Amino acid sequence: MVCAAVAAGLTLGALTAPAAGAVGHHARHGAGTTLPQAAPKPDTGSPVRVNQVGYLTDGPKKGTVVTSATKPLTWTLRAADGTERASGTTTPAGVDPSSRQNVQTFDFSKVTNEGKGYTVTVDGKKSEPFTIGDNLYSSLRSDALAYFYHNRSGIKIDADLVGPTYARPAGHDKAAPHRGDTDVPCQDGVCDYRRDVSGGWYDAGDQGKYVVNGGISVAQLMSAYERTRTTKGADGASLGDGRLRVPERGNGVPDILDEARWEMEFLLRMQVPKGKPLAGMAFHKVHDKEWTGFPTRPDQDQQQRELHKPSTAATLNLAAAAAQSARLFKSYDPEFAARSLHAARTAWAAAKAHPKILASDSDSTGGGAYGDQSVGDEFYWAAAELFITTGDRTYAKAVFDSPLHRDVGALFPRGGGMSWASTAGLGALDLATVPNKLTAQQRAEVRSMVTKAADRYAADSAKSAYGVPYAPKDGKYEWGSNSQVLNNMIVLATAHDLTDKPRYRDAVLRGMDYLLGANPLNQSYVTGYGERNSHNQHHRFWAHQLDHKLPHPAPGSLAGGPNSGLQDPVAKEKLNGCAPAMCYTDDIMAFSTNEITINWNAPLAWIATYVDGLGGGTAGRPAG
Ligand code: 9MR
75 and 161: one domain? Predict the structure, then answer.
């Protein structure tokens, strides 16, 4: 499969060693020419689209069939042995704008007999097999969370926890040949000292570590846990001590918090120390001086690592995540909780003193830019978290004075939703769900913003022939669209937690259907889940497509998904003319559609925890 990359004119260098001529990782938006070419015709298998993992016993069960027929057709549900179990007629849905396919939908929600190997046949065409049953998502929850241990920096990845295929030496510690993260200089002109910024998680297919993206990711892991403490009926045991694949299991602390702490300690190291210029701010990021080649196992990276200029956005990510960490660790490790709170308060004060140090969109040599020109959302999020943890009115005032407060469309944008660049919603969700000192009326207001946003996402799901709760601006799918689907699902799931209204739950489950195969490409975007799953995502170690001695991505890794922008050479070559939800290819070098990253797996882990908690569809609900 190297040919795809070569055809796209990439210089790969030696494939098994760190390549000297590094592959330019992130071509910027829309650069290059658009070739006049017919729309691509990918192999999409059966036209009958279902959730390839399955349907909860008491949940909605819907699918979509691509067909030129405009009159209703007959659908037939069969058990694994071929016996017919149910049938009905499809509902014509016209042309789906996200795929430009003529489609019809079918609904077999009434079937509640558990079983494996079910299929749906329409017009002589059979779907991929699926299960009907309870607790379909337990392994997805632990696999999606294991992603974070797999991608830890500065620690050996242990075969006892991940198996021999995925074990590897520690990356970016002090050992040769690379220069490690324990003694890192700044980029020229940024600082004249060196810092220990070891630990944390690698961001993605690259081995950069970015405070901006680390912040939302660790916050969503902590929230997956915090939800189990604040939502009646939610089960935290599955995230508890001894339940996940982390080396700290058995230490008396919930395993998910152990994983979060690995990143938190790194984020704390990224804070500019007392006595230095911009003290209290956070460096925006640390990564290689130049892009490393493909593949490069983390311990074989020979590039110099560098710290990049502090930014207001990074500082507020640190403040928000550290404030949350302070309250969650209080009963497990008061010293660490106090250290987190001190860092959070210091970061807030530094951001207030330097509110406009904005990370540039063009700083993308050797690592992603994570440029962010508007930081009102980060101020809102950090203020909310600090207020929840401390009860201090100064932070409440910052929340109420923010123009984002009471603006549902700004907190939870209709298309994109929450993301690394749009974090205010994280604060609003926590204000709505975590005990805090808002008055009852203020709390009701925040909750109604969450349910209003959820109503919009539920309407988007109902309107889509594929049930996806995502309606991006101008219909264009964006980089990491699958994470946007998931972040909208988090808002829906929170609304379900708050109100217990089934339609919110249904829209979350429809989102799962979309991600796991009920979509225009018949693609499950999660490695190891579903017959037609993504397994060649862009990653420098999990690079099996380029070097068969290396593994595929570990099970539970979420591909970024369709991206209308075609922002890499392979996507430009293979996908020119694609309909928005079809701008995806499972090719390792199609990084603008097929990368994996912490801020996409974090909402996957959150949602997997929520849907697993539903049991057969209705478990774990608060009484009344
Ligand atoms: O997720 C980021 C996406 O929103 C941006 O459009 C894109 C281009 O700037 O970058 C994405 O983030 C990448 C980061 O820059 C570097 N590590 C991998 C990230 C996922 O592709």
Answer: no
The label of the residue with tokens 């200029």 reads 309
Q: What CATH number does residue 245 fall under?
A: 1.50.10.10
Pairing between β-strand 194-195 and β-strand 209-210 as defined by DSSP bridges? unpaired
- Ligand 1 neighbourhood includes 595 CB (under 6 angstroms): yes
Residue 623 has pLDDT above 80, yes or no: no
Just list the catalytic residues.
586, 595
Do the Cβ atoms of 600 and 608 come closer than 8 Å? no
Provide the 8-state DSSP code for 133. E
Burial readout 92-109 (b: 16 or more C-beta within 10 A, e: otherwise): bbeebebbebbbbbbebe
Residue that is last in its domain, among 93, 116, 133 = 133
Q: Which one, of 517, 516, 521, 552, lies nearest residue 537 by Cα? A: 552
Calpha distance 490→492 (Å, rounded) = 5
Q: How far is the CA of 606 from the centre of ligand 1 (A)?
A: 21
Separation between Cα atoms, residue 492 and residue 469, nearest integer Å: 9
Q: Is residue 622 part of a domain?
A: no
Ligand 1, atom 6, lies closest to the CA of 479
User: Among 23, 25, 203, 584, which is best to mutate for testing ligand 1, by the most ligand atoms less than 8 A from CB?
Assistant: 203
Nearest CA-CA partner of 593 in 532, 534, 533, 512: 534
> Do 141 and 610 contact (CB within 8 A), yes or no?
no
Asked if the structure places residue 43 within a domain, the reply is no
Q: Is 385 in the pocket of ligand 1 (CB under 6 A)?
A: no
Distance from Cα 537 to the centre of ligand 1, integer Å: 14
DSSP 367: S
Measured CA to CA, the distance from residue 223 to residue 217 in angstroms comes to 10
> 91: domain range?
54-133
Task: Please give the Cα distance from 568 to 12 (Å, whole number).
Answer: 15
Pairing of strands 101-107, 194-195: unpaired
Q: What is the pLDDT of residues 430-474, one digit of tens each?
A: 999 999 999 999 999 999 999 999 999 999 999 999 999 999 989
Q: Is residue 541 part of a domain?
A: yes
Alpha-carbon distances, residue 595 vs 483, 551, 599 (angstroms): 11, 15, 11
Identify whether residues 339 and 355 lie together within a single domain: yes
* Tens-digit pLDDT profile for residues 361-375: 999 999 999 999 999
Do the Cβ atoms of 219 and 324 come closer than 8 Å? Answer: yes
- pTM > 0.90: yes or no: yes
* Structural domains counted in the chain: 2
